[in-house]
Design a protein that fits this description.
three-stranded mixed β-sheet, about 20% strand
Amino acid sequence: MRIFLTGATGFIGSALVPELIESGHQVVGMTRSQAGAQALAAAGAQTHCGTLEDPDSLRRGAAQADAVIHAAFDHDFSRFIENCEKDRRAIAALGSVLAGSDRPLVITSGTGMGGGGHGTLATEQVFDASHPNPRIASEQAGNALLEAGVNVSVVRLPQVHNTLRQGLISPLVEIARTTGVVAYVGEGANLWPAGHLSDVVRLYRLAIEAGEPGARFHAVGEEGISSREIAQALGRGLNLPVVSIAPEQAAAHFGWMAMFASLDMPASSAWTQARLGWRPSGPALIADLDQARYTA
């Protein structure tokens, strides 16, 4: 297939490009910069100039493709709500040129959208329409496209990691450097799911090849690692003390990360594994944190 990929030069996208090409697909990667275009060309992909803020560029990219993977997201969490709404508009633009065809669109969300609340295991069959996380906008946009006849499915991400980046854990490193301690909230028993980058990109490929309308896939290799275990690994790597802070102190310590720091959001990928034959095999999160280079 000729696949249009947004976020093609990002953390996930830059690993997804070779995964798709090595499986026989053509990749047209979206980028806004000359450096991005050069990186895509070096990886064997074609280049499409565009941005999330320009819906016309998204429509042009999707129009020339057999399939679309939307992996881009603006990760400026100081403007999280605004960026989630930007993602809603981007998904609508991509889907608008796919209506009336069987061409698949895979969008991206978070595993928390499949949770039942109170730390229950998130599953693929659940969509929590009342979830307070603004990222719900992405799946709402996908649902609207599905009702309009677009072949849309969702890859839900946990904390995606290798030894260089680890999702929301990476900002915790900067907070720890600033404050001089690695902190967790309360007992640190709240759980975060995780998936290794190599497993995640393989799931995106399997999802676009399956082209199953309405399916939600969980890129989960580990159902839940406690925030205390994560903090202890960061403490070892940064050679900083690890401390517990009270919930009422979280906002002052974590800043914008406070909204995530105490979330309990374990997630399953049992259905995904059974449906697609996907078997996560990459290194575990704590192993990657122990091998990470904590350079300032």
